[in-house]
Design a protein that fits this description.
alpha+beta; Chemotaxis protein chec; Surface presentation of antigens (SPOA); 2 domains; eight-stranded antiparallel beta sheet
Length: 237
């Protein structure tokens, strides 16, 4: 198994800090790889890939995944378990530097857990396993661990590999946090107060990462955004 690095550990710690579990979990690396219990549970996980100066494959397996799924409101079809856990995966990926986290998918992570280049962490609460987190880091697309933190830029050669990848561009005029109870209680005519004043610049996000500011305009009766400021790499990290 590849040597554990500060990147692997940092990713695991960032992930557990965002997990919506009923009790906080602690991440501890498994030097010998995944345990039999982890391998058995890995058939039902949430996986995603990160592409950037460093690329990585991430997988999260929780023993109470069905409970989180139910808490997400599956009866109403509002939230999928991948949406609930994506902020945790994004927190883990943020440690790897500049890049894009792909779509989170609920599927088997057994092959990733079994890979010799994967570092597996056991997530425990009071010594009791509550899940497992697996991360396999690839440098310049090649499997293998690295002991150095990633640079703040993406080499041009790496960008060439993802030129044709389609990504989601989102314009956000504001946001707020609401409980599921309040969301389900909304009716036509309800007013949702946002976290910024009227006329403030809108945020332009690429796959969830802030890249620019702009103003909302109307073009041929369609909404559009006029870019007013492009953020540099240091501002977006």
């Amino acid at each position: 198994m590849s040597a554990t690095t500060t990147l692997h550990t940092g990713a695991a710690e960032a992930l557990v800090g965002q997990l919506p579990t009923t009790v906080p979990l602690h991440a501890a690396v498994l030097p010998g790889g995944s345990t039999p219990a982890g391998m058995q549970a890995a058939v039902d996980g949430v996986v995603a890939s990160f592409v950037g100066g460093l690329s990585a494959d991430l997988a999260l397996v929780l023993t109470d995944l069905d409970g989180i799924t139910a808490a997400g409101g599956t009866d109403h079809g509002l939230v999928d378990v991948t949406d609930v856990l994506r902020p945790s995966l994004e927190a883990a990926a943020s440690v790897l530097g500049v890049g894009v986290l792909g779509e989170a998918r609920r599927e088997s992570a057994a092959s990733l857990f079994a890979d010799a280049d994967t570092v597996v962490f056991e997530l425990t609460a009071g010594g009791v396993p509550g899940g497992w987190f697996a991360v396999r880091i690839r440098e310049n697309g090649v499997l293998g661990a690295t002991t150095q933190a990633p640079a703040l830029g993406i080499p041009a050669g790496n960008l060439g590999r993802i030129n044709n990848v389609e990504m989601t561009l989102t314009v956000e005029i504001g946001r707020t946090r609401m409980s599921v109870r309040d969301v389900l209680g909304m009716e036509p005519g309800a007013v949702v107060e946002l976290d910024r004043s009227a006329g403030a610049p809108a945020d332009v996000l690429l796959n969830g990462r802030l890249i620019a500011h702009g103003e909302v305009v109307v073009v041929d009766q369609d909404y559009a955004v006029r870019i007013t400021k492009i953020l540099d790499v240091a501002e977006t990290v």
